Amino acid sequence: MGTVYLKVFATTALCQVPIETLISLFTIKYCNSSVRIMLVKDSNSSGENSFLVNVSIFECEFIEYSEMSEIASGCELPNLEESDSNCIAGLCATLRGIIKKVLIENPEHYCRDLLGFKESCLLACSEASVWTRFCEIDIISMLRTIVQDSILPVALVRFEHHMTQPMRVHNIYKYTMSKKIAGNVVTQNRADLPEHTFAEGMILSLADIIVFVCIHMLFNFIDKKQVHELIPLTLKWYNNLLTKEHILRSLNVFCIEELTSRNVICNYSLPVVENQSLYKSDPKRYKPRNRIYTRQEDIDSSLDKVKSIELKVMLDKPFVDEEDFDWDSVPQDATPVKDLPSNRLQRKFQQLESLCKPILKLAKTGDTIVDFCSGGGHLGILLAYLLPKCNLILLENKAESMNRAKTRVARLSLRNVKFYQSNLDYFKGHFDIGTCLHACGVATDLVLQQCIDKNAAFVCCPCCYGSVQDCHRIVYPRSRVLTEVLDKRSYLVLGHAADQTHDVENVKTKQGYECMTIIDTDRKMQAAEHGYQVYLNKLTPDSCSPKNHLLIGLPTVMKSS
Questions:
Q1: How confident is the model over 87-113, as a mean pLDDT?
Q2: What's the order of all strands across the beta sheet hosting 36-41?
Q3: Which side of the chain, N or C, has fewer Cβ within a 10 Å radius?
Q4: Is the pLDDT of residue 32 over 60?
């Protein structure tokens, strides 16, 4: 059934735990999961809020961090170890993994509904989905730092606004036709859809579980009776969940004090929060502002700012000399032959070859190499075959892509590959070389930052320059030099223009490559500020991809052999 590792702050039956652990235990109880539970003692040095849980109702074991398995210790908690070579990390992915373990034993189990329509509930990573980010980060953060305050938390109000939006119906036509058959006149306008019953649709899903636990614990800080008029839809949803059999059965996980006995009157108020949907696909949420970034006068202005400092924007001498790559000696399962159509295959081979050559030059016996954003494992599996004395880690947040990679690794009988299904941010294990092929937007910078933090070499091919955006770990520009001359908007202008690398006949292509080189020079300079020698090269040949830059970085203080 697998082993779930959860952080705790004490080793007693009534145990102080972080909110992620509380949510995980509640989900396990809700599903009647028989997953093995390992409670890992932590000092809570960050001083985050903790919550009292009755762990005596579970079969569990207390351990120290040093006692965790090798693969589980390589990523943040909570995580789910499926085998000694396969681990799932991140709250949403871990909870989905626990549910799927239950369904393996009993495909008709009631917890299948938690996975939602086409089992896609909270499937997208938090970087790509506003909804996943809300459930995995925003509402969780509300519980980490909450203080006694008369202003309600922003995340709570955002959820209230969310509940005012029309419910998401995945097959609107089927829904509207059924209403017409019943004699009701409706249209396919989203305004005609019913109000939310549950957080994500017509059935109780994993999103409801996460939000319910957070709001249930929030009522340990605020009196729900005193906020009824401020968040009526949230309370209606909350009280509805309290009528559900499996929710009621799982409430004994909590150990909380009812605020109603305190008789403290507080005049709660709402923070200023824009009334918008938490569904990324909702057209009302986003305004098409991106066009302004590609106006020629904006691009010219940004380029002039860069030229004003006489920045050397150019490619470096090749890190690897041209040499033949023997594809004939590589078995088909270590190549993309079976996965791609013939019209894409040659370019994919060229891309893989361009990244493999510098890694083969850098790698030493016993090195650990991480293929970040590995997808179906084309690059990582090829490296695992070519470097049998190195350890390869494939890190990917999409379960479907990872399953394809596992199948190919099994057919090749490779014993030097481990799998982490998680966001790259959750990985914290040791490695010597990090690589990624066409990591989109900010993902490239997250990979580079991971490598810098671990003093690891990197070989990265960026992509989607127009998608760069600040996140919890990354701000732009990256280097001190460009930070002094470019504001945020001017930098994003260059990023959008960098994606205009169409074909040699297009008038925008030359400018697009110039902007692309500025963005990657910024990355190069940021790594150099941390003691790296960096080469900005190109894939060979140029035509194998319009996003054909290659960043190769070597830490000045190299690890010993």
A1: 96
A2: 60-63, 36-41, 3-8, 79-83, 86-89, 417-421, 391-396, 368-372, 433-440, 457-463, 549-555, 532-538
A3: C
A4: yes
pLDDT at 146 over 80: no
Longest dimension (CA), the chain: 79
- How far is 254 from 249, CA to CA, in rounded Å? 11
For the purposes of burial, counting CB atoms within 10 Å of the CB of 508, is it exposed (0-12), middle (13-18) or buried (19 or more)? middle
3-class SS string, 202-265: CCCCHHHHHHHHHHHHHCCCCCHHHHCCCCHHHHHHHHHHCCCHHHHHHHHHECCCCHHHCCCC
Q: What's the CA gap between 97 and 103, in Å, rounded? A: 10
379 Cα distance to chain centroid = 20
DSSP bridge pairs for 538: 549
261 CA to centre of own chain: 41
SS (HEC) of 49-72:
CCEEEEHHHCCEEEECHHHCCCCH
**Residue 487 is inside which H or E element, if any?**
none
Number of H helices, E strands in the chain: 17, 14
Among 49-63, 65-79, 291-305, which is the least confidently predicted range? 291-305
The answer to whether the peptide bond before residue 462 is cis (omega within 30 degrees of 0) is no
The pLDDT tens digits of the residues spanning 231-274 come to 999 999 999 999 999 999 999 999 875 444 455 678 888 998 88
User: Cβ(526)–Cβ(315) under 8 Å?
Assistant: no
Q: Go through 211-237 and write b for each residue having 16 or more CB atoms within 10 A of its CB, e for each that does not.
A: bbbbbbbbbbbbbbeebeeebeebbeb
